[in-house]
Amino acid sequence: MRTVLITGITGGIGCRLADLYLKRGYKVFGTCSHNSKSLQQFQMKWPSIEVFQVDHDDLTNVRNVYSNFFRKVKPQIIINNAGIVKDSFLVQMQLTDFQKVLTVNLTSAWIVVKEFLQQLDTNDTSKYRIINISSISGLIGREGQCNYALTKGGLIGLSRLIEHLKQKHQNIDSYVIAPGLINTGIKDKMPQKKIANLKNNTLAKRLGTPEEVAKFIVKLSEPDISYCDGTVYRIDGGILK
User: Fold this and answer.
1) Hey, what's the signal peptide range on this chain (predicted)?
2) Residues classed as catalytic
């Protein structure tokens, strides 16, 4: 049985991923923040999924949770999906908001990758795939998303660095998903005028759905997908500007 670890599993995209992987016979594990309000509801819907709570403000806790997990489980698929937003402009950004988004979105993802690689036997020939969920903001630097854009761009850099480890870990591939505006809880924190403008600036003229993103990620997980190492896949409805 193939296994998958999904960080931020109780969010909009995380829930859809969990459901799709279960339907394909995967053993699914996930993590969520300590203050996740949707964990109880998630566990009622998918009781077979083991979910670990992580305090993303405490990097020692983050390291311990993932280190202990990877000692016991070597998932074939790792999806760095956890993320938060605290939007502001570059000059107006508060240091505390900058650091919190950096910690959750990028530093924690780096720790996940680091702890996994440290636990991996160099003689292990199994195939592994690390999929980092970035954003269109990480590619084009959305105005008013200073910290978020930086961290999502950093995830692209992290994936490229993983690919540079091929000499030691030929069996690991890393891909990046860069969604546009998706109809998740993050969208609910945005002004309606901004959402309308973003819709109008896409060929699709609508928001993306978590299901659309999740289906694409699951397809990328298939063992027969190859020769696209380090690729960034945009799922943005055809952003015009």
Assistant:
1) none
2) 148
